[in-house]
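#structure-requests
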Amino acid sequence: MIRKAALLTLLTALLASPAGMAGTAVAAPPPGRAAAAAPADPLLVSEITPEVVRVATAPITVSGSFSGTPGSSVRVAVRYSRGRPFASRAEMAAYLSEQGYATTNWSTRVQATPLDQSGKLPFRFTVTPGELGMPRPGVYPFEIEVTDAATGQRLGIERTFLTYAPKGEQIPKVKLAVALPIVDRPHRADDATFMDDDLSASLASGRLASLLQTAQDTGDGVTWFVDPALLDDVRVLSSGTRSVRGTRKNADPAAGQWLNGLRSALTDKTVVATPYADPDVAALVHHGLDKQAAASIQRGASLASELLGRQIHGTTAWPAGGKIDRDAVDELAMSGVTSVLLSGDALPPRATGQDTGQDVPQNGQPVAPPPAQTTPDAAARLDTVADNPLTALLADPTLSEVLGGNVSAPGAAMLARQRFLAETAMIAFEQQTQQTGQFGQTGQTGQGTTAKTATRTVIAAPESHLWTPDPAFVSSLLQAASSAPWLRMTSLESVKPGRAGVPRGDLTYTEHDRQAELSRSYLATVRKLERKADAVATVTEEHTDVFHTAILRLASASWRDDGKRALSFAGQVQKAIDGRIDDVSVLDTPRAVAGSNGQVPVSVANNLDKDIQIKIRVTSASKSRLTIDAPGGVYVTPTTRILSGRSQLVNVPVIVRNEGGDASISVQLLTDGDEKYGSAVRVVVRATGYTGIALVIVGAAVVIMLAAVVMRILRRRSRKAFPFDGPNDEESPPGDRQGAVPADRTQSP
């Protein structure tokens, strides 16, 4: 049992010992803690100065610390490759990933030293370019390794680069353009409703505060891509009370300060407006929302100019993820875009025979190996359906990753800065190699001026538009780049395709890229809301795009990874649209009509604050009892004006069938362009079969009237045969009245 326990203890110790993989030591998690949390890197390299070595005899200072078991002894050494700089950027990548490139020399700089009681060992030492074997300009590997003094086991390692650019050595220049985005996800659904209070927090001390600080700290060599939808949200936040999901809140003065600070920071700097709300252009085009993509481009430039107080163009697009396909490129070109910023791997160099890396025998003799692949220029031409081609601005993937990466870990910013400088220096040395065949050589002397080459341009841009910058890191990186002898900062708009650029293949847009787009079902919802919003806009006498920007916000590319939030925004927009549509309503109180034909009154009320122009279409929903007396059974009014706050009555001609009964008619409001406005309303019509009864009554009345006339005639005729009275008492003597027979009244006297 004792031997088993000892063996188990030894095995546990071996498993708990750190493994040196790219400078990261992995230890077993303590009891009671989850194993998911990554342990802190035990090796911290906090300083390597100078970042660019300019003098062969100048010392290179390295400092840092190592954390481990208190009292254990460790050694600190440097590893390098004497006299052998990297031949390509591909070798640099292989070196960092331990895939096929290894250092050949090493030297112990700190001998076996025990860690202190806290388990730390700070170290500091110097080396010179001569000691490291740097005979000529180039980028060299440089490793700091910590090993166990007793066993020699690696406990930690950090790989980085040393760039050697001696003074007096002419190194080809590289133009560097940097693009940085000031973009955020939308915070308003409809224009009047904020869906959260996250914007205030971000402006005060979050991501947007860091973006403002970065803009204030950087110089004129950066091109800023600004989303006007963000600026608009900030303006509304600062200008007055707002609704946050139904709760009224006061204006945020800090939002106004942020907006003013950004205006000041971007003064005299190159600014490009993104399309409004930074839309997912590819998804819009693929799902038939081309009009919306074009509208976002137009709205973006005009609103950015208004909010920043100077002319801002939107002729350069930056698609989400740096990827796009031909259909989307054509839409951008037709919408006035002249250049598009993409990831470099979106338009890769075309493969040639020299790119295979194989030595093909010719006449039985092997040929020399092909030269190392060089970094292509950052601009290329894209043919489109428009009259003029588009300029593809291609950001270097590696530089972009370094620029937009997370440097929050101790020492990460310094190492990222050194890699950025080394990568750009390697691009410069690639140009020199093309002319001389070896770094640092011009002609036969290795000194003097190099032959003239076309100045290459590279672009660096964060991979994500929603990046969170470290202002100090970005500022220091750009300052280091500005002072590097091989770099010259330039604006993005100055980058143009060269005459002898590297041939490139077609745009790459994979199935993975399509899967990353906004989903088909979600965009179907957006399309439905867009049609309803168009109806709201066109029904008023003066067309007003009340929900235009709300629909554009729903197409933001920021919803790609936030579908649940996107649906909640869409639901709020639909609620707002439906509420405005309901302000124009059909009164659905029951109506009555008597007889075989007649008119049914239909009333429409306009409760909007504007006059409307509308049509009314009426059809029968009960044709067996009631039909519309119009061609095809459809009654449509001409375009009718209804004043604000008023109602309009329309009489619809109908025909009652089969002695009537309860029926219904369907009333649909239409815009002047015959688009449906709201849903159809059913109105109950009580059609009574009173026509037959009315005829009976009228017939009986006629018979009675005729009978009365006949009776009167008969009465008159009967009176003709009745004898008249004699002369009156005054004309005849009394003796003559009796027995006298009167003369006929028709006879003359």
